[in-house]
Specification:
This protein is mostly helical. Helix content is 60%, strand content 9%. The chain has a 3-stranded antiparallel beta sheet. 14% of the residues are buried.
């Protein structure tokens, strides 16, 4: 979170300098002579370009920070659950979870989520059919 402002400032200054260099060289990769006068006249436009670039970086980091971070183990836990279901012919029995490293509450939460998505059906007595 604290990196958002320094990176935005760096992006703003970098965008401004790139725009300055572009006007100085007439946007040519191999200029013969640079144009100091044009680059100095275009400083307001170069600053606007830098600020726009910095605002885009600021917004990008803002969206990234607002997204919830999924648990790094959520995918592997779900794969373990599907493997367990495959070994048990598609049926998960909550009473037989001692053989797995999954915690019972974690399995219940995953099964409730899958049931809400229509990927699991409760059969009763702690048994679920996965599709």
């Amino acid at each position: 979170m604290w990196l958002r402002f320094p990176l935005t400032l760096i992006a703003t200054l970098g965008g401004t300098l790139i725009a300055y260099g572009g006007f100085y060289n007439h946007f040519s990769p191999h200029p013969k002579v640079g144009d100091h006068a044009l680059a100095l006249q275009m400083i307001p436009l170069e600053l606007v370009i830098g600020v726009v670039f910095g605002a885009l970086v600021f917004r990008l980091f803002g969206r990234r920070l607002q997204q919830p971070n999924p648990s790094p183990h959520a995918g592997s836990s779900l794969r373990m659950l599907y493997r367990l279901a495959h070994r048990m012919n598609g049926v998960i029995d909550l009473n037989q979870l001692e053989r797995t490293p999954l915690e019972p509450q974690q399995v219940r939460d995953m099964l409730n989520t899958l049931e809400g998505q229509g990927k699991a059906v409760a059969l009763g007595n702690g048994r679920y059919q996965l599709s």
